[in-house]
From TrEMBL:
InterPro entries assigned to the protein according to its UniProt record, in alphabetical order: Leu-rich_rpt, LRR-containing, LRR_dom_sf
Name of the molecule in the record: Leucine-rich repeat-containing protein 74B isoform X1
Positions of the UniProt region annotated as Disordered: 1-93
Basic and acidic residues bias spans: 43-63
Gene name of the record: lrrc74b
Pfam families noted in UniProt: LRR_6
Superkingdom of the organism of origin: Eukaryota
Coiled coil: none
Segments of skewed composition (Acidic residues): 66-89
Length: 377
């Protein structure tokens, strides 16, 4: 009996063993779950396995990895701040285009005009003469783009290209920026009053232009108002040609007021206009007070008797003027003799078809009259 009790005590029943096994299994599962959760938290703190580095590698690198990252950031910054060959796709940088050839081709493409081969061939010369090339307003706008930065051309001749007011405005804007061109010929281009206004605005800002030819551009009295105000501020322009326009009586008044105070002009052509009457008198009064003009062409305007008397009075006072062209100025309507058709008949030495020349060597102050048919300048 004793042995049986010991066996009963030492050997648990199967049911008890099953309960113990289940309980042990549950405890092991709980422990395993806690270990997994704790391991997950550690992984979250440490980061993904492929991004973690072992302590040995960190110690071995000695912070070199961090230094390399900083150097890469510096390289990226420098690449963004400066142009590199990599950004150009391995192409070499183009040198600075002094003539403006590249921008001219781009301007022609944008404005849909055919590039002028003559311009491309001669844009590096000191003189560019493109007479009768049919540029038109758009072609002139394209031409003006490279001329802004062109440093070679000193004399520009665009006579008879029918550039109109739009093209004239483009040339005027170009001349505000260009400080190399000294002579410009825009004659016979139908600039009109808008073109005259653009030229006047340019003259108020340009300080290098010496000679400007605006002959044959359908200028009216309104054009003279713009140009007259510009002559008061510009002291660099020396030669101005306004011949073959439709300047009238009001133009004579505007230009006369400007000439009396102009400090730059040395020669002025107003031939073949319509300046007469009171405008002719005021223009002559302006010549009387000017001490800089050397040559003036007033031919074919129709000054009349009053204008002729005013011119004679101006010559008595002006001791600087050297050449004055006053051919063909009728003084009354109706049939006229050749002698009656000329201004000099109102002076001390009348002579038909004449140049009036002021001789600085003559100390008496009287004009010297010589016959001839030579043109202005």
């Amino acid at each position: 009996m004793v042995d049986g009790k010991k066996l009963a005590v030492e050997v648990p029943l199967p049911s008890v063993l099953e309960d113990d096994d289940a309980e042990t299994e549950r405890s092991e599962r709980l422990q395993l779950g806690e270990q997994r959760s704790s391991q997950t938290e550690v992984d979250d703190v440490r980061g993904p396995k492929d991004q973690r580095s072992s302590p040995d590698s960190n110690v071995r690198d000695g912070g070199e990895g961090q230094g390399e990252e900083e150097e890469e950031e510096e390289h990226v910054t420098s690449d963004e701040d400066y142009d590199t060959d990599l950004e150009l796709g391995g192409e070499e940088k183009e040198g600075y285009d002094l003539t403006g050839r590249t921008c001219y081709l781009k301007a022609c493409e944008k404005l849909q005009v055919v590039p002028a081969s003559y311009f491309l061939q001669n844009m590096g010369n000191s003189e560019l003469s493109m007479v009768h090339h049919g540029l038109g307003p758009q072609g002139t706008k394209a031409l003006a783009v490279p001329l802004v930065t062109n440093t070679s051309i000193l004399r520009l001749n665009l006579r008879d290209n029918w550039i109109e007011g739009m093209g004239g405005a483009a040339i005027a804007e170009m001349l505000k920026e260009n400080c190399y061109i000294t002579e410009v010929d825009l004659s016979d281009n139908n600039l009109g009053d808008s073109g005259a206004a653009a030229m006047a605005g340019m003259l108020k800002e340009n300080g290098t232009l010496v000679s400007l030819n605006l002959s044959g551009n359908h200028f009216t009295d309104r054009s003279a108002e713009h140009l007259g105000s510009a002559l008061l501020t510009n002291t660099k322009l020396q030669h101005l040609d306004l011949s073959y326009n439709t300047l009238g009586e009001r133009a004579g008044q505007c230009l006369g007021d400007s000439l009396s105070e102009s400090l730059g002009l040395r020669s002025l052509s107003l031939a073949w206009n319509c300046i007469r009457g009171r405008g002719a008198e005021l223009l002559a009064n302006g010549l009387e007070g000017n001490v800089f003009l050397r040559k003036v062409d007033l031919s074919f305007n129709g000054f009349g008797k009053e204008g002729a008397i005013a011119v004679g009075r101006a010559l008595k006072e002006n001791c600087v003027l050297e050449e004055l062209n006053v051919r063909s100025h009728p003084h009354r309507h109706g049939p006229q003799s050749k002698q009656d058709n000329q201004i000099p008949q109102y002076w001390e030495e009348p002579n038909p078809e004449c140049w009036v020349l002021w001789d600085p060597s003559v100390l008496t102050g009287k004009p010297r009259i010589s016959c001839g048919s030579a043109g202005f300048l």
